[in-house]
Amino acid sequence: MASYPPDKDPREVFAQWLIRPENPWFSRHIVNRAWYWLLGRGIVHEPDDIRPDNPAQNPELLNYLGQELVAGRYDLKHIFRLILNSKTYQLSPIAKTKDPRAAENFAYYPLRRLEAEVLIDAVCQLTGTTESYSSIIPEPYTFIPKTAARSLCPMAVSPARSWRRLAARHVIRAWNRSGTTR
């Protein structure tokens, strides 16, 4: 059992250990998540199942991206830039072979459905209407009253704007402010 000074917060000690360059698990897990988020399939599939008996489809790629994350001082923007500018990300969605292993090896860009929030936001924007997200299931993210939305998130101007959409806009705006181009 590890010991730490009594004046130190154990969460801080844990966080310091977690991001040490000697700990390959954290960086590999983060880049696998980024790959999964952008390409719909992780280098280790399923993205939550990183363990020794579930090997990466391309261990060299996973190690490279993990090393880049550490070398870039955990700058996720750098990792996203690497993935988004890669040939793999820019491949056509039309498979050149019927081999079922093509998807596992990222031989083409996988077609993915639009998320429901993105689709309804696009329809609302085209039709000039708004939509309130509500559900009979009590989930904290399905309906946010206008007054609560403004107090919780100053960027929220209507209940039609989901948290995911706001986060995506924030990322896109930050990306555009960086002046990065292909």
The strand count comes to 0
Low-confidence segments, given as residue ranges, are 151-160
Mean pLDDT over the residues: 79
How many angstroms separate the termini? 48 Å
**Largest sheet composition:** none
Order of helices and strands: HHHHHHHH
Q: Which structural category fits the helices and strands?
A: mainly alpha
Alpha-carbon Rg, integer: 20 Å
How many helix segments? 8
**What is the global morphology?**
globular
Specify the helix fraction band. Answer: 40-55%
**Estimated share of beta-strand residues:** under 5%
In short:
The protein has 182 residues and is mostly helical. The chain contains eight helices and no strands. It has helices spanning 10-18, 24-39, 59-71, 76-84, 101-104, 116-127, 146-152, 163-177.
